[in-house]
Amino acid sequence: MKYTTIRYGVAAALVFAIGCSSSRQSNFAGKDKLPIDRKVDSVLKLMTLEEKVGQMNQYNGFWDVTGPVPKDGQAAKKYENLKKGLVGSMLNVRGVKDVRALQKIAVEETRLGIPLIFGFDVVHGYKTVSPIPLAEAASWDLEAMKKSAEIAAAEAAVSGLNWTFAPMVDISRDARWGRVMEGAGEDPYLGSQIAIARVKGFQGDKLDEFHIAACTKHFAGYGFAESGRDYNTVDISDNTLHNIILPPFKATVDAGVLTFMNSFNELEGIPATGNAYLQRNLLKGEWKFDGFVVSDWGSMGEMIAHGYAKDMKDAAMKAANAGSDMDMESYGYLNHLVTLVKEGKVSEDKINDAVRRILKVKFELGLFENPYKYCDENREKQNIGKKEFQDGVLDMAKKSIVLLKNENKLLPLKKSGQKIAVIGALANDKTSPLGSWRIGADDNTAISFLEGMAAYKGNQITYEKGADVALGEPRFMVETKINTTDKSSFDKAIAAAKQADVVIMVLGEHGLQTGEGRSRSDITLPGVQQELLEAVYKANPNIVLVLQNGRPLAIPWAAKNIPAIVEAWHLGTQSGHAIAQVLYGDYNPSGKLPMTFPRNVGQVPIYYNYKNTGRPSTDNPESVFWSHYTDIENTPLYPFGHGLSYSTFEYSNLKLDTKSLQKNGKIKVTVDVKNTSSVDGKEVVQLYIRDLVASVTRPVRELKGFELAEIKAGQTKTVSFTIDEKTIEFYSANKIWEAEAGDFQLFVGGSSTATLQADFNYSN
Ligand code: BGC
Ranges for the Fibronectin type III-like domain (predicted)? Predict the structure, then answer.
């Protein structure tokens, strides 16, 4: 039987009249083959202006659905609005029972029975937590990151959720910004590849009951908050916006992401939520994005504080006209949009466009066919925390670890006969490794470092805390709660170190010391941990430093003095096992830094793809007038792309099949990578280019390709890359993406400081 618009109308009216959910479901379901756009139009035609605006309203979970129905206050009002069909989406409601209860109200008690979409920040796992996204990015393993997103999606989906507010694709060059833990680091190329992998993981090939809608955020520029202070003003050039910030966003549109989130910051003086250039011209215009844009939490209302809107009504008008489709918790649309349409200040066409986009995503998720598609208690029970997920996040965690330094082959550890002193509060912490943004997971559910080490029985392990990382309630951690004074446990730690063959110090940041609202002006080891490190070093310098942190840290003393340093980030539920397996050599690390580690905070922002400037260097050591500091060198502590392995690799034989790239042509680049060690290993082979002269200045290096090469001990692998016009395109002086004729340098190696070089030119 064929569906027509009339049929929807009849179906809805009928269902409304008889109030029967099952017939409503099947009537709306439409087992027909009508294209989604026509189904959307059929529904839209039935809607009043109020109901349309209702779809544009998203509420935070307001009611404990297992408790009594709210009788007064804001919760009661929200409840009434839900029943009136004035809510399109909920966030932070999770668990099949709760989701089902709210969906039932939307489907059975509202006039049209339009299902809700349930959003949640499934940023790096739901209950089973994978490494923080910055750590995952260090794996450079796109398949693994896709798989990790798939696990997160599946666990969220079985819990009733159908929309994650991820991936966060904000490029950032500022380690002070707490939210660097949520992104993929500083590079637009790597960031784009990772963004695509995550969207594909969350959404799958088809949106079945284990996959959910993804949301690319925060559009745009949020990672460039001045001084790394969260929510701060952003002031960037068009050049930086287009060449550095936007590529990962665009990549997810091309990969079919269903939704976008705008951001708290302003751009060119206009808050992103009210920014028509970003949302209408670029995203929905040029890029042809056909999903919907949700505001960030309260960001519509924040346009008042920005000084861009007079009051909430003005803010709602500006947001709607600028193309922000759904209002997260400002109540601006709900309270003002109908009036604004009646006053002619927002056209009904714009409302229709927003609602079409929202309904379309609901159709794509299959919610009209079955609003309870994600609500199966058995599925929930059978899947949450299951072994396959645990194995998956363990695999991801191992791949995320970066071996920063390993002198005298201190690592891997011997498996027996050793006395090992483990020192540091983080070693015994089962919450911190979960990191920030893991609101679906419970405290104390990570495998601690000590538990991971305990899986190996051959050595004798002693543990001393040495010093706390943080005091008080970590959930609301602020710097005043960081332990800056208590050294009373130092002595015991020093005594333990003296007795040990090897000391492992687990230091860094508490899991909630990064993330939203957790910017730091000092990015050294917090509290008295640096003093502890130096005191223990005096007693026994044979130290492996295991860092657990959510951002690049400035650790120059450790980099100089400590023989082995392992960057273990916040690795999630299986953290302890992952680190122990790497330390014992059962897993050979291959991670590479996705973000530069500075020598001190004064170097920040520091990044590998900087511009050369007019005074890049001088041959005269006495010279003053060149671009440098007088008190520290320009180079970072650890560059982008850096990471060691228990294998060693040698690069040679870099070849280009032609040195001249023609329009529509290609260059094949090959390089030999030899594993010169006696252990099998993996190496992230990286390719960078430099465009020497262009219509706008170009970075000294740009990552343009990488391959994760598995190379057996003693063997050589030839790795190849292809370069074409796309590789050399950039946002030019003409304000378009184009390839310009000229000369290029190309570098291949194991980090952004690769020295193996070849040249080519491009003529068009
Ligand atoms: C964050 C978003 C997040 C939203 C909902 C905001 O504060 O900036 O990234 O998705 O809250 O939790």
Answer: 683-752
Dihedral of CA 538/544/549/551: which sign?
Answer: positive
> Is the confidence at residue 19, as pLDDT, over 50?
no
Strand partners for 688: 703, 747
pLDDT digits (tens, 9 = 90+) for 530-565: 999 999 999 999 999 999 999 999 999 999 999 999
Contact 477, 511 (CB under 8 A): no
Domain chopping of the chain, boundaries: 1-46, 48-380, 406-603, 649-763
Ligand 1: distance of its center to the CA of 217 in Å? 9
Distance 297 CA to ligand 1 centre (A): 6
CATH of 48-380, one of 3.40.50.720, 3.40.630.30, 3.40.30.10, 3.20.20.300: 3.20.20.300
Q: What integer pLDDT is reported at residue 68 of this predicted model?
A: 87
Q: Which atom of ligand 1 is nearest to the CA of 92?
A: 12
Superfamily holding 649-763:
Immunoglobulins (2.60.40.10)
Q: Rounded to an integer, what distance in angstroms lies between the CA atom of residue 688 and that of residue 238? A: 23
Of ligand 1's atoms, which has the minimum distance to the CA of residue 217? 9
Task: Check: CB of residue 737 under 8 Å from CB of residue 729.
Answer: yes
Element (H, E) at 399: helix 387-400
> In angstroms, what is the span from residue 78 Cα to ligand 1's centroid?
20
- Taking CA atoms only, the protein residue closest to ligand 1 atom 5 is 297
Place of tokens 């992952």: 578
β 259-262/292-294 pair status: parallel
Helices (H), 47-181: 49-55, 73-83, 96-104, 133-137, 142-157
Question: What residues are in contact with ligand 1 under a 6 Å CB criterion?
Answer: 91, 121, 165, 217, 296-297, 516
Sign of the C-alpha dihedral computed for residues 168, 173, 177 and 181 taken in this order: positive
Return the amino acid letter for 392: G
pLDDT of residue 18: 30
pLDDT at 3 (0 to 100): 30
Can 230 be counted among the known catalytic residues? Answer: no
- Selecting among 98, 296, 395, 468, the annotated active-site residue is 296
CA-wise closest residue to 150 among 128, 177, 182, 120: 128
DSSP string of 318-335, one letter each residue: HHHHHT--BEES--HHHH
The string of pLDDT tens digits covering residues 84-135 is 999 999 999 999 999 999 999 999 999 999 999 999 999 999 999 999 999 9
| Superfamily for the 406-603 domain | Glycoside hydrolase family 3 C-terminal domain (3.40.50.1700)
* Residue 264 alpha carbon, nearest atom of ligand 1: 8
Ligand 1 centroid, distance to 164 Cα (angstroms) = 11
User: Which residue has the least CA distance to atom 11 on ligand 1?
Assistant: 297
